[in-house]
Structures are given as C-alpha cells and as structure tokens.
Fold these 2 entries.
Entry 1:
Amino acid sequence: MGRVAGKVALVTGAASGIGAASSILLIKEGAKVVLCDIDIERGEALASKLGSNALFVPLDVSQEAQWIAAIETLLSHFGKLDILVNNAGVVVIANVENTTEEAWRFVHSVGTDGTFFGSKHGIGAMRRSGGGSIINMSSVSAIGGYPYVFAYSASKGAIRAMTKSVAVHCAQKHYGIRCNSIHPSGIATPMILKRRDIAEAAGHNTEDQLPSELKGLGTPEDVANMVLYLASDESKFVNGAEFVIDNAATIIEGKIPG
Amino acid sequence: MARVKGKTALVTGAASGIGRSIAVMLAQEGAEVIVADLNEAVGQEVADEINSSGGKAYFQKLDVTSEAQWAQAFSALTERCGKLDILVNNAGVTERGNTENISFSDWKAVIDVNLHGVFLGTQAAIRMMKSAGGGSIINIASIEGMIGDADLSAYTASKGGVRTFTKSSALLCAREGYKIRINSINPGVIRTALLDAHLANFEDPEPEYQRLASKHPIGFLGAPEDVAYGVLYLASDESVFVTGSELVIDGGYTAQ
C-alpha cells in the first residue's frame, strides 16, 4: 500500500530536477500524477516512461488560461485533484543594483504569478473533492540574505508568505486544504548547477556564498521525500508550515563576503 | 513498509502520549525500540505490546535528568543492541505559571527535564553515534518555543532552548564530520492522555476542546501519530540532507 495511494497530483516544473523526482516518487507511492512543464519533449518522455499513472500536460505557469485548461484536462483524466506541487521556478543571477526590469518580471511571472494561479485554481478543484494538500517550492533565499539572486529571493519570499495566507484562508473556510512550503538549498538540479557555473564564471566567491553546495549537494530525491510526507495523510495536522532541507546551510554563522 | 528497518531507536517518555506513539510507529517500521520512561509499569506494557505484535522492544527505566541513568541506559543498549541509530528526546513536563508567580523550584523542575534532559541525552548519543558511523537525533520541542505563552513561563523557555540547542549541536556534528543529523519538531496542542485529563476537569469538556482547537486554523487538535510521522521521516534515511532544521506540526497555529 503506497503512502499516497489513490490520490491525484499535479506537479509543475515536472520535466527535470525536484519536479521530476517528486513525480517519480508520488507515482511509486500510488498516486496518479499530471506532470506539467514548458519543456514538452522532456516532460512527455518522462511521463511515457512512468506509465499509465502519469500524464504530461504542457503548462506555462505564468499564463492563467493555461492553468485553467491544465486542471480541466486533469479532472477529465483522473477525476479529482488531491495534491498540487507548485514547483516551477526560474533564477536570474543578479543583485539589486543590476537586476533589469525584464529579469525581475520574468522571475516573478514564473515563481510568484505561477504559484498564485496554481493556488487559486488548485483550490477550486480541491474544494470539489473535499480537500487536498498544496506544496509550494520556496527556498532558503526566502529566509536568509542572498544578494546575487535578488529577484529570485523576492519571489521565494512572496511564495513563503502566500503559503501561510492560503493555509489560514482554507482553514477558515473549512475546505480541508492544507498548504505548506519547502525551503531547499544546495540541491543538485539543472537550475542550480547552471547557477553555480554562472556565479563562478562571474568571479563570485562561491565558497562563501554557497556553503552547502561545496560541502556536498543534496539530491532532488531529498526534497521529493518531504513532498511525499506533505502530500500524504501523515501530515494531516501540518498546515502553513515551512520545511528547510539544506544541510544546516541557513543556520551557519553569517558571512558577509567582501 | 519498513522505513527504519534494522535501526535501533531509544525514545524517552515512551510510556504514554506522543512518546508511546513514536515508539510503536518506529517498531512497526522495522526498528528495535528502547522504550525509556520513569514509569516502569506502563513502559513495560508498551514494550510488551510491541513485542507481541511482531516488533522488537525492551523497557529501560530512565530519569532523563540523571546523567548516571543515561550512562546506565547506554551501557545496557550497547550490550543488548550493539549500536544506537536514533535518539528521540521526547520526555517533557509542563507547569502552569507565569513569570511573576512561578516558584524557582517549579521553574527548575521544568528546565531540568525539558532542557537538561535533552542535553544529557544528546551528549551521550553523540559520543556513541560518532564512533558507530552516525545517526539521527530528534528533539521534541514545541510551538511554545516559537511564540510566547504568558502562563507557561518555564515551559516556553525550555522549549526555546531545545530549538536552538538542536541547531548548535547539529552544526557541531556537521563540522566534525560525525554524520549525525539533529533536528527538532514543534508540535501544536496534541490530544494525549494528559490533555484528556485536563478536559476531564470540565463538566462539559466540549467547549474547552473547541476553545483549544479554535487556536489551530485547521480546526482540530493533533493526534500523537501526527508527531510520530514527523519523527519517522527524520529518523529514516529519507531525510539524509536535513539537519539543524525543524518540523512544525501545528495545524497552522504559528502561521497566523
């Protein structure tokens, strides 16, 4: 008996990294999963590998109309929505002084807007089936100061606060919907590895700035295990909370690199 | 399923409430469990129950405030099990009293169990685990260590101490390369025998239950199993990248 047997999940950014690992684990533990991504080729390849409990649906999370269509497709295929993993995100390497307006809006369109649209329409679908669990992928950059990913930090901070607002709203309305956030750091995903290469190429002292990444990276599966816990009924008393998965990166003595 | 198969776990305060639920769940998931408690009769029953339902457990009498008794417990478990993979510092007490009226002796009694007990257990476990290749230590703190409660002066102080002590010890073990992860759990109000006893003081317990439940946005109080599932995650290898962190299991109490 799987830990999420009989449940239906929608995972964004599911073609790679944490989204892919979460989709794989949820299916292994008995769920049906709609994998959403803008990378149609990788998303379809992964879904077909995962078999009949997986369905790929193209989704640009920054487009509300696409969310409505994706959830309609999910409901017509699997009948209900129990688990929503708002995982899709993008990062731009820039601090507050050199972040362009375009970069700022791009990061927020995926992270902030995408999580808003997903929550709004996910709640609508979950209410019909009597409840569910929304899991938002935030970051340690919503907690500490990370100067070189300014827009990303702002977006992840918004996701952290939105999570609590949604959690209390759904509780007050007695929807039976829980909403929690996860704050990883130093996970070896395509997004992060690319970020590290760019940061190093730009001459940043990554030893100071990215401590956990040099001490040993976590894996997408490390985050997927927390997604599974929050998706399952094991966490039925967990709501509006945040879970840091960072090998102590956020509690290490502060360093302000020169 | 056997998410902690082959591991050995010591759970303090395991005779009742949250600790009992943790002990039973870890045993169900394949761990050998040392049921540690002050209460011999009830603690032995928990160990018997685990053994008779196909698990593996034994009872260890333990006053967590006594360094000598911790040493005895560790020497016994070394002999019987050879190793310790999981320590759950769960034993705790509470004393109603605000800063103006709590007596120093009541204050010290709470700090002694809730904070000194966690320190003694963690210190003993690190000494053993570091030479055995690692382990996971889980400290049960409380949301009362995150927020204030005017009528729980010593309790909030002790649980706040547990949270930051956890992070300090986690960083030590990480720095020294001990492969020991240390995390805390902050539960909201959990429906245990202790709470039921409190409710029994009321002619009609329902309004009091509703008063407590209403503080949790989710609208109900937690069950011991809700905390045990968090312990299971932290005890298992599913959480290998998690250290110095904390799980809040509070139905949204602190999200407001």
Entry 2:
Amino acid sequence: MRRLVPLVIAVVAGLVVLLDFFFSGRLLDAAGRQVVDWVTVVTAVALLLGAVSVAERHLRRVARRERGWHESLALLTSMLLVIAFGLAPGGGPSSPVVRWVFDYVYTPLNATIFALLAFFVVSAAYRAFRVASREATVMLFVAVVVLIGQAPLFASLWPGFPWLKDWLLQYPMTAAMRAIVIGVAVGVMATSLRVISGVDRYYLE
Amino acid sequence: MLSATSTMATTGLLGDLGLDADRLIPLVVLLCFSAFMLLANLMQQRGRAAGLRFIPGFAAARRLVDGAAESGVPVHFSPGTGLLGGRQTGDSLAGLLALNSVAAHAAAARARLVVTTPDPVAQAAGQNIARNAGLAGRAATAQRDDDTVRFLAPEPLAYAAGVMGLLNREKPSGNLMLGALGDEYLLMGQTAVGLGVPQVAGATTPEALPFIVATTPDPIVGEEVFASGAYLSEAPIYRASLLAQDWLRELIMAIIVGLVLLQTLRPG
C-alpha cells in the first residue's frame, strides 16, 4: 500500500498531463491545469524541506566544528538574514531590502562564479592539449579555427578564415548538435514512458 | 483541390476527436515508440534481443565505485543540474535512474556514496533510492539520509559552487556526473581534475559536451546517458527500452535520408 498509492498518483498524474498535451476537452484541460498547479505546490513544499535539510546539515557541521565550519556559519547567517528580511512587516520577495540583497550580493556573486569559467576553459584546453586524445585534438583544432575566424586580424590575412568558421558552425556542428538532440529526445520519451506506465518505480521507497 | 479537401477533412476529424492537428506527428511518434517498446520487451523475454555495444564510460563508472569500496572513501554522484517538473525533467529522471543503478552497485560492493542535487524533489527521490539500496536510512551500516543525498542550491552556478566546495573539502575517491549539465559543469569537472579525483561525466545537453570531452577520458555522450539502466543494472526492461530507442532512431534517420534524397532528386 505504501508503494501502491504514490505509484497510482504518479501514473494518473502523468497520464492526465500527457493526454492534455495531445487532446483538448473541458474536463481534460481542467484536470491538466490542476495537476500542474499541484506540481507548483509540491515543489514549494519540497523547497522548504530542502532548506530545512541544508540548515540541519550545516548546523551539525558548526556544532561538531567540522572542516570548513566557518563557511557553514556564513551560510546559516545569510540564510537567516534573508528569511528575516523577507518575513518582516512590509517584506516579501519584492521588498527593497530583499531586492538589494539580490541585486548587490547574490547577482554579483553569481557573475563572479560564472566569470571563473574563462580561466577554467583555458585550463581545460591546456589539459586537452597535453592529453592529446583523438576527440580532444579535433575539438581543439576546431576551437582554434573558430577563434581565428572571429578575429578581424586573421580575416585580413586570409579571407577564407571567416568562411571556414561559418562552414564549420553551419554544417558539421549543426548536424552533430541535431543528432544529439534527436537522440536525447528519444531517450527522454523512453524514460518518461517507463515512469508514466509505472514500470520505473525506483523513486518510491 | 483534392489535397486541400482531404486536408480539411482530416483537420475536421482531428478537431472532433479534440486532437490538436499540430501535435499529430508527436502522437504518431509516441505510438510508434510504444509499439517498439512492447515488441522489444517481448523479444527480450524470448531471449532474442541483441547484446549491448561497449561504452567505456559505464565500465569506468563501475570501476570508480569499486575503487571507493577499496579505499573506503565515498564517491560523489550528481544527477545533473536539471529540475524535476521543469523543462529538463526527462534528463533529470535519467540522472536518477543512473543513481539507482550506481547505488545498487555501491551497496553490493559496500562502497559509500555522497549524492548532491540542485533539486529538493530529486533529493527526496534520491533518498528513497539510497534507502532502497541500503545505503541510507534504517540499515545498521547506513549513513544519515541527508548525509547521503544532499540538496545544495537550486541555481546551477550556486550548485556548482557547492560541489566545488565538497570536492575540495571531502576529496571523494571519484566524481560521477550524469544528467542535464550546462556550462557550469566545467567548474565542477575541472576542480575534480585539479584535485586528481578520477571522474566520469555524461551530459544530455550539447553545451556541456566539449567541456566533458576535455576533462574526462571516458565521456558519456547525449543519448548514452539514458542507457545507464541497461549498462549498470542490466535489468531486461532497460535493455528492451534501449533496443526500442535504437529502432526509433534508425527510423528517424531513414526518414531524414529519404526526405533529403526526395528533395535533391525532385525535378525542377
């Protein structure tokens, strides 16, 4: 029973959304909308549980003075502060304080992490060059051609560089991307069908 | 004239059924695939299905888990940065399916596993998977649920920062990442490379694949991620599903080649 009820809910919800995608009808549309609304509610509750789980784990790390406990303390403090600002009278996600935190703390931190990618790309390219596997060599060669093709200096040396770059991007790369996307779409269909038909039930306890 | 009349008649019939005419082709593909699945399953039950080609990434994944069992140091697993309920639900389910197979293998080999996820819903599913495998929960040798399957942060970059911290702090014996991964993969993958942590990664998204090829000796590419059930757990249903996927891909390829030839050879 403990496995059967969640399984029936999963199968029925999956079928309703699938049928609603293909067919229209008053009852089906309403049922589909209802299931999507439930997903929003379930996700919100799960996010709350996730936040509790994060807080519990980091509290334990601070209490045990585990390695990196200072970082856990910083996480807990910032988490509590944002929650407190959000719950304060006149607060909420669009209150000036919470927006300030997002605009001047969260967004710059996110951008900083993203900016690290440039250095990681160089480091990964250097490693690929040293390892010199067949795939990595082809990838590096194409990357160099595309880089050269985008620089006006090289275009002035030989006008064929931009043409070669465009050809590589339009034909071999587009073909490979589409092949991957089609393969993945078929894989998604297989996985979803197994879940909707109740064959895959590994996610249930 | 005849063609226009028949198109109008078909559209009218579909409208009566409540079927959106734009979605007829996806429905036909889905029905075809369902038929392929049933046929492949039948063939599998009768022992007539073909064997699997060797994918080095899955063999390497098994070795990582075995290595974790020998060293006693846990292996890190990530089901990707996609969220269940979002656009990448299918990709994230593939990551969870891979986790199911890896967790079962880890439990059999008595290896420890640390799973991180950016999705609290996937965390709940992951904890069930870990409990079913005996890696977490009630079993005497098991770890705590939230030590085994950890929710880090819902944003991909924040999640990547969390994984980088975990790799630096806990230095796992291996790093396994399978699922929907974006550019942020490089932050995690290159950190593992820098620490000398052996890793296996596979992404369903083309953006991450160049980074994976640059940082992993045995990358798992695109649709191969969905084959984890067949390769890691060897359950018959996953082999049948893989066979049906191959048939559908071959059918799509044949249709594309046929249409290209028709278009090329069309007079005028």
